[in-house]
Amino acid sequence: TSAQIYWYPNGSCQNYMVFRRKKGETTWTGKKIANVRHITGEGIRSYTDKNLVTGTTYQYTVRGYYTVGGKNAYTGYNKNGLSITTHADAPKLKSAESIDHKTIKISWSAVKNADGYKVYRRNSSTDKWTALDDDVKKTEFTDNTAVCGEKYYYTVRAYIGAKTFLGAFDEKGISGVAVPKEVVLDKTESLDFNSIKLTWNKI
User: Fold this and answer.
1) Beta partners for residue 66, in sequence order
2) How far is it, in rounded angstroms, from Cα 22 to Cα 57?
3) Regarding beta strands 116-123 and 93-100, do their DSSP bridges make them parallel or antiparallel, or are they unpaired?
4) pTM confidence score
5) Are 121 and 174 in contact (CB under 8 A)?
6) Which residues contact 86 (CB under 8 A, 6 or more apart)?
7) Is there a contact between 61 and 81 (Cβ–Cβ < 8 Å)?
8) pLDDT tens profile 58-101
9) Would you say the C-alpha torsion 22, 161, 132, 130 has a positive or negative sign?
10) Neighbouring residues of 77: CB distance < 8 A, sequence distance ≥ 6
11) Pair 79, 25: CB distance under 8 Å
12) CB atoms < 10 A from the CB of 139, how many?
């Protein structure tokens, strides 16, 4: 999980210091995470902060400085900073398997620190996702409301903390079609010289 920080440049600065702290912390001292060099002619500056913990609120601020006579002179900075709460990553969809004529089983990879998952479905005639379940605790879900032969698309979003704080999701989704179970043959029996009786298990 990562965060992108943007700021407007100060023409007199040679470098910028990026600071990060967690929500609730009150000082920026010792919180510098990067030093970004000023490049003449560029527009809005940015920095990508990687490997963050999902579901955590961070605060960022940036301070510029320039060197005069071997000493650094520092600009003012936003002492409150700007806040961002990191969302959960998109679950990696693994399969959408037909169980029987009205059932499809969906599975996906676990998302780190997720408290649960919300499962969505749509058919091929619409781009709108409809929620099937908003509190799935496992990394699989069984849809018992499928229509036989109709193609569906599924996607999943993880949440951390509140169920309304949803993470990213695979916008394309994974497709599945509910079909009848495979017929299992039971036995064949000869009735006479030109007749054979075939039996199978009921579905």
Assistant:
1) 73
2) 6
3) unpaired
4) 0.69
5) no
6) 1, 3, 52, 53, 54, 55, 56, 57, 58
7) yes
8) 999 999 999 888 899 999 999 999 999 888 889 999 999 999 99
9) negative
10) 61, 62, 63, 64
11) no
12) 18
